[in-house]
C-alpha cells in the first residue's frame, strides 16, 4: 500500500496558548512585542485572535485555554488539509479534533499541532526592535526523542532536518520565506512533552531583554546562548542569540 503523499506547507503560524484568565494580558504583551494589532476575537468563546502586522502577513496567533498552563503549538497552512492530515496519521499522529476544513492533531510524543487551509499568506513580517518570533521549541522526553525527530522530519520533507548546535537539539527548518521553524529539544528527564516560543534576538540579546522587561516580562534564567523569560500571562519563552534577520547562529 502506498503512503499518502505529503501536502506542502505554504505558511506557518506560532500559537501563543495561555490560560483564559490571563488571556488579555497575553494578547497585550505579545501584540506589543511583535508590534502588531490584535484582531477581533473569534471562536465559540472568543478564544482565538490573530496578531496583525502592518503591510505583511500575520504569523502569530493567540489562544485562551481552559485547562493547564498553556504553552505553544504550530499551525501548518496547506492547500489540501485532508491530504496533509492523512500523511500525518500515517506517520504516527493522532486526531484530537476534526473540524470543518481544519484539524487538531498530536504528534507521537503528544505535541499538539493544527492543519489549516492556506489563504495566500506569503509576506513575512520584519524584525521588530531587534527580535523576531520565529521558532516553536518542542521539549521532548528522552524516551520519545528519536521517534519525534523522525516524525517531524518525515511529515515535512521539503524542510531541512539537521542536528542543532548542541547534542540535545534538532532543527526542522522551512524553505526560505516561511516564518516559523521547529526546534526539537531532548529533555534531561522523563516528563510530558511541552512547547514554548523562541525569538531570534541577536546580535543584542541584552537590549531585547530590557525591552521585554519594560513591557512586563520577568527574567527567569540566563544561559550562554539564550535567556529564559516569563510573560505577564505566566508563559515561559526564550530569547536566543540567533541573528534576528537571518535566524542563523552568531559567528564565533
UniProtKB/TrEMBL annotation:
Xref: Gene3D superfamilies: 2,3-Dihydroxybiphenyl 1,2-Dioxygenase, domain 1 (3.10.180.10)
Signal peptide feature range: none
Listed InterPro entries: Glyas_Bleomycin-R_OHBP_Dase, Glyoxalase_6
Coiled-coil boundaries: none
Domain called Glyoxalase-like: residue spans: 16-115, 142-240
This protein's name: VOC family protein
